[in-house]
Specification:
mainly alpha, 6 helices
Length: about 100
């Protein structure tokens, strides 16, 4: 999956949902950006984001989501809505050495 284009619309969304880093940096990592979007974006935001990703891209992002970003409720929702997975697979887990 390629990075998102840096448009005014996506920059505003990225600035709000990944507030702690520059929007350009957030948009450059599509899997991580989508993980934050799954947890924090509004329905309107998601409609704009979905213009840039296919269903398969979205499923790939769910499967590769970094641990600790998506909450359990959002994890269940997006796995059901996009990937038709019920019950959802286990959430990503942080591993410590």
């Amino acid at each position: 999956m390629k990075s998102f284009p840096v448009t005014d619309e996506l920059t505003k969304i990225a600035r709000r949902i990944v507030w702690f880093e520059p929007p350009e940096q957030a948009l450059a990592d599509p899997v991580r950006f989508l993980a934050y979007a799954m947890a924090r974006a509004t329905a309107e935001d998601m409609a704009k984001i979905r213009q840039y990703v296919s269903d398969q891209d979205f499923i790939d992002a769910i499967d590769a989501a970094p641990p600790g970003i998506i909450d359990p409720r959002s994890w269940s929702y997006w796995n059901l809505v996009v990937a038709d997975r019920q019950p959802p697979p286990p959430m990503p887990v942080r591993r410590f050495a």
